[in-house]
Amino acid sequence: MDFMELVAKRHSVRKYAAKPVEKEILDMILEAGRIAPTASNRQPLRITVVQSSEGLLKIKKAAKIFDAPLALIVSADHEQIWRRSYDGKGTGDIDASIVTTYMMFRAVELGLGTVWICHFEPSVLKAEFDLPDNLEPVNILVAGYAAVDDEPNPRHFERKELDKLVRYE
Ligand SMILES: Cc1cc2nc3c(=O)[nH]c(=O)nc-3n(C[C@H](O)[C@H](O)[C@H](O)COP(=O)(O)O)c2cc1C
Question: Which of 5, 32, 34, 102 is most open to solvent, judged by the fewest CB atoms within 10 Å of its CB?
């Protein structure tokens, strides 16, 4: 599948089949995250794989994950992130998001559905998964095989025209 086909194929999946994600597929998804670029190549990340029924119950205390069989919590390590010298801005959110993006597209390429979750309660997530203070959960990537009756949400088709987003100076 070429890249634009993959991009066009992806939509947020919020209805999953009750089929676990195989270990080989999970490993391929994680590998895509491993090789993603990060600022100054610091790789300041921790990916928490949640697949067990116990883990999925814990994550459900913090976020709605649509009964998916797999969730990847992508956390930024504030002790390792790169900071811009001019204003101290840290790139933890950016690094975590590019890693999440790589894994999301790899998952879609491998035939899975995904939905990116930021609507979670960080303190609950940190407590449930014993994340130390230096780790900030940034994204949850939920993944699994889409249910046969999965349909994209209408919002998937609502994108602004390029002229609303782009300015040529
Ligand atoms: C940073 C980010 C955070 C998101 N958080 C949530 C979320 O918490 N819950 C949810 O159901 N969808 C979430 N989404 C999915 C968006 O709602 C979805 O991508 C958007 O509506 C466009 O639809 P599409 O992904 O089907 O193209 C998030 C997406 C992004 C990129």
Answer: 5
Distance 156 CA to ligand 1 centre (A): 9
> Are 50 and 72 contacting, i.e. CB atoms less than 8 angstroms apart?
yes
What's the CA gap between 45 and 42, in Å, rounded?
Answer: 9
Distance 115 CA to ligand 1 centre (A): 6
The pTM (predicted TM-score) of the whole model is 0.97
CATH class (in words) of the domain with range 3-165: alpha beta
Is residue 71 within 8 A of residue 59, CB to CB? The reply is yes
In the chain, domain spans: 3-165
Among 1, 12, 6, 5, smallest CA distance to 157 is for 12
CA 28 – CA 61 distance, rounded (Å): 28
| Pocket flag, ligand 1, residue 115 (CB < 6 Å) | yes
Task: Establish whether residue 32 lines the binding site of ligand 1, counting it when its CB lies within 6 angstroms of any ligand atom.
Answer: no
Tens-place pLDDT, residues 60-116: 999 999 999 999 999 999 999 999 999 999 999 999 999 999 999 999 999 999 999
Q: Which atom of ligand 1 is nearest to the CA of 63?
A: 8
